[in-house]
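[Discussion] Sanity-checking designs against the backbone

I'm trying to build intuition for which residues belong where. Below is a C-alpha cell string of 549 positions. I'd appreciate it if someone posts a full sequence so I can compare it with mine line by line.
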C-alpha cells in the first residue's frame, strides 16, 4: 500500500521566550507581549492574545518552561479567558490546542525544543534554525516542515518512495508480533550501584567500589540510523520452522529475517550481553543477559542472532519470519544524509543555529523511523472530577492541581495512517542499531582479503565499559579506534562511523544514568583536544570540530 504525499502550507508562527514573552515573527520582526493588569511577566493567555493579534496559528516557545510535576497545576491547564481548548497533549513534548471564542481561529502552543534540543536557544535563533532546516530539506525535496519531526519524516518518505514500489502490508498477526517482541535502542548502565540490572542474569562490568574514579569518554555514531536503512525487508513474509530458521541463520546470515531463539551465554563470556530479552514487567523494558550459563528465549533480528552466533553463543532457532528484501528507505535515508551534509558544510552559519538545524534533521530521521511503528499517539483528556474518568483509563490518571488528566489509547490506523504504518522497518533499523553499537565498520587499515575491521562495545575492554545508550558508549579510557583517521583512529568522517565526542581525564564515575548524562554534557563541552594530545596528535581545529558534529 503506497502512502500518498499531502500538500502542506507554512504555518504562521511567533517565536516567544516562555518567561518574558519577547520574541519574533516569521519575518524576524520583534514581538512584545500584551500584558494585562500590572504583571511584569506574561501569562499563558497573554501569549495567546499576542499571537492572535499577529494572526499567528502557532506559538513556538523557547527558554525555560514552567514545570509540569504530578500533583501541581500544569502550565497548559490555566485560565484563558476568550479561549477554549478542544484537548491538549500533555506528554513530552507537550502541545497546547486553543480556539478563540469569538473569531474561531485555532492556535497551537508547541516547544522549540521538540525540534531543536539545544540549550539556551533564543527565539530568533530558533526561527533561524527553522528557516535553515527548511532550506536544507527543500534542497533534497520540495516540501515544507510539518508540525513535528516525526510527521516531517513520514511526509518525506511518502515523497521518496520509488514510483514502481508498492510495498505489501504485513499480515495483522505479524505486525502485532513485532509490536510485542521488538524493542527500540539499547539502554544499559553497566556499573555497580542503583542503576544495575538486578535480574540475576545480568552482571555489571565496572565495580565502582574498586574503581570509584577514572576517565570518561563519550563515543557515538555519526547520524547512525541513516547508515542502517539499506535494503530493508518487508512483505510478503514467509513463516519458518525451527529447522528452516536454523538453516537460514547459518547459510544466509544476512537474510532479512527475525527469529525466536533459545540462547545460552558461554561459560567463558566476560563481556556485555548480546541479545535483548524483555523483562517480565513491560514498563521495565529490556535487558541483556551476560552471566555465563544464563539461558533465555527471545525474538531477535537476524543481525543480532548473527553476532551472538559468531561470538560463540549457543543460539537455537525455534521459529522465524523471513521478509522480502527491498529498497523502501534507501532514497529517504540518502536524502536526509544530503540535507545534513548541506548543513554541516554551511561554514558561515551561526554555530548555534547550525547545531540546532543539524539536530532537527537528526530528529526527522530518528522520529521518522519511530513513526513507522506508531499506531497513533495517545490522546490526553482533562476533567475536574475523578468520577468523569472512564474505568479503562483509571490507571493512567495524573493529578495536576485540581485537574485529573488521563490518557486514551489510539485507534488502529486506517487510510493514509495505515499506509504509513510499517513496523517492520522500524524494528529492523532499531535492531541494526543495537547490533552496530556492538560491532561497527571502521576505516582502519587491513590487508586485502582480510575481514573488514570492526569497532564498538565488544572491542572495548569490558572493565572499561560504563554504559551503552542508543548508538553511544561510555568508557573509562579513550578507544584508539574512535579517533580521526588522521590520528590513527577509524573515523574518516563518514555517516555511521563511531567517533569520540568528548573526554574528561579524571572524574567520579557515574552510578546512575543522571550522573552519566551530566558527565556526557561536560565531556562534549570539553571536546577531544585533550584526548588527541594524549595520543600524541595535533589538537582539533575548527574543521575537525565541524566533522565531529
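Best answer:
Here's mine. Compare freely.
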Amino acid at each position: 500500500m503506497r502512502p500518498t504525499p499531502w500538500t502542506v502550507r507554512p504555518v504562521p508562527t511567533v517565536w516567544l521566550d516562555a518567561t518574558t514573552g519577547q520574541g519574533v515573527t516569521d519575518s524576524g520582526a520583534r514581538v512584545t507581549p500584551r500584558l494585562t493588569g500590572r504583571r511584569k511577566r506574561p501569562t499563558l493567555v497573554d501569549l495567546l492574545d499576542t499571537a492572535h493579534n499577529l494572526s499567528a496559528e502557532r506559538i513556538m516557545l523557547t527558554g525555560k518552561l514552567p514545570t509540569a510535576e504530578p500533583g501541581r497545576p500544569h502550565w497548559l491547564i490555566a485560565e484563558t479567558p476568550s479561549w477554549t481548548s478542544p484537548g491538549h497533549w500533555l506528554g513530552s513534548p507537550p502541545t497546547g490546542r486553543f480556539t478563540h471564542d469569538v473569531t474561531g481561529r485555532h492556535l497551537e502552543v508547541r516547544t522549540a525544543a521538540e525540534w531543536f534540543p539545544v540549550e539556551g536557544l533564543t527565539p530568533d535563533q530558533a526561527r533561524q534554525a527553522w528557516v535553515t532546516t527548511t532550506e536544507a530539506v527543500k534542497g533534497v525535496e520540495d516540501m515544507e516542515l510539518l508540525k513535528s519531526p516525526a510527521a516531517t519524516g513520514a511526509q518525506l518518505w511518502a515523497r521518496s518512495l520509488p514510483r514502481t514500489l508498492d510495498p505489501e502490508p504485513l499480515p495483522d498477526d505479524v505486525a502485532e508480533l513485532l509490536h510485542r517482541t521488538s524493542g527500540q535502542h539499547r539502554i544499559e548502565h553497566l556499573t555497580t550501584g542503583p542503576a544495575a540490572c538486578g535480574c540475576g542474569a545480568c552482571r555489571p562490568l565496572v565495580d565502582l567500589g574498586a574503581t570509584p574514579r577514572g576517565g570518561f569518554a563519550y563515543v557515538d555514531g555519526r547520524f547512525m540510523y541513516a547508515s542502517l536503512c539499506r535494503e530493508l525487508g518487508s512483505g510478503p513474509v514467509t513463516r519458518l520452522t525451527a529447522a528452516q530458521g536454523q538453516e537460514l541463520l547459518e547459510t544466509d546470515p544476512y537474510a532479512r529475517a527475525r527469529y525466536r531463539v533459545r540462547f545460552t551465554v558461554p561459560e567463558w563470556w566476560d563481556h556485555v550481553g548480546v541479545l535483548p530479552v524483555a523483562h517480565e514487567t513491560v514498563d521495565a523494558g529490556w535487558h541483556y543477559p551476560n552471566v555465563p550459563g544464563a539461558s533465555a528465549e527471545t525474538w531477535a533480528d537476524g543481525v543480532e542472532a548473527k553476532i551472538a552466533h559468531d561470538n560463540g553463543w549457543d543460539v537455537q532457532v525455534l521459529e522465524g519470519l523471513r521478509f522480502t528484501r527491498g529498497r523502501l528507505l534507501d532514497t529517504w535515508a540518502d536524502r536526509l544524509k544530503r540535507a545534513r551534509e548541506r548543513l554541516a558544510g554551511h561554514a558561515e552559519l551561526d554555530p548555534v543555529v547550525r547545531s540546532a538545524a543539524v539536530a532537527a534533521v537528526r530528529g526527522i530521521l530518528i522520529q521518522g523511523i519511530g513513526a513507522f511503528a506508531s499506531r497513533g499517539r495517545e490522546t490526553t483528556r482533562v476533567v475536574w472530577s475523578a468520577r468523569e474518568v472512564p474505568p479503562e483509563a483509571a490507571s493512567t490518571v495524573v493529578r495536576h492541581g485540581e485537574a485529573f488528566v488521563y490518557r486514551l489509547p489510539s485507534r488502529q490506523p486506517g487510510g493514509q495512517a495505515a499506509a504509513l504504518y510499517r513496523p517492520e522497518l522500524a524494528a529492523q533499523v532499531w535492531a541494526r542499531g543495537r547490533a552496530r553499537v556492538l560491532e561497527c565498520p571502521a576505516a582502519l587499515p587491513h590487508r586485502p582479503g582480510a575481514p573488514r575491521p570492526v569497532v564498538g562495545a565488544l572491542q572495548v575492554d569490558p572493565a572499561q565499559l560504563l554504559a551503552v545508550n542508543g548508538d553511544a558508549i561510555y568508557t573509562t579510557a579513550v578507544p584508539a579506534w574512535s579517533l580521526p583517521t588522521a590520528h590513527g583512529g577509524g573515523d574518516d568522517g563518514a555517516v555511521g562511523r563511531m567517533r569520540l565526542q568528548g573526554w574528561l581525564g579524571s572524574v567520579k564515575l557515574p552510578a546512575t544514568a543522571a550522573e552519566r548524562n551530566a558527565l556526557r554534557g561536560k565531556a562534549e563541552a570539553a571536546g577531544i583536544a585533550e584526548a588527541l594530545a594524549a595520543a600524541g596528535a595535533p589538537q582539533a581545529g575548527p574543521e575537525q570540530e565541524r566533522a565531529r558534529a
